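Lab notebook, bench 4. Still working through the backlog of constructs that have no structural model yet. Next entry is a single chain of 140 residues. Request: give me the structure tokens for it.
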Amino acid sequence: MTEVKDILKKHSFRVTQHRCDVLSFFMLCKTAITHSDLEQKYRGEIDRVSLYRMLNSFTVKGILCKLIGSNGAVSYVFDKHFDHDKIHVHPHYKCKNCNDVIELPELPDSYMKLLERLKIDEINILAEGICADCEKPEKI
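Model written out:
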């Protein structure tokens, strides 16, 4: 829990139990999480609007990555590179079956140099498919 509090403080958030709970959940989860998923998990504890505001502010501060799927659905994952000072752009891979998310390697330097010359407010690169674990035939 100390790491969670440190992350919140570093990004100028007031440390509250709800923020700690939600951020801890993201840090432990390797699947993409939607607003709806959080609503169900924290039903009766944290209201829908507070969850939305948390997701938005965590994304703006770079703690979470926002993933927009091919169907337009938005989900979020913890960004393991949240404390890097330089811009990092790495695509993600999301399994359409189990929702596991894998961070793919950063884009090549030549691509990054081009991006640095442009004024980009947001970039989302998401590859989708069926992961090897889900593709395995079930044993009978």
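Notes after review: The chain has a mean pLDDT of 86. The radius of gyration is 16 Å. Flag for follow-up if needed.
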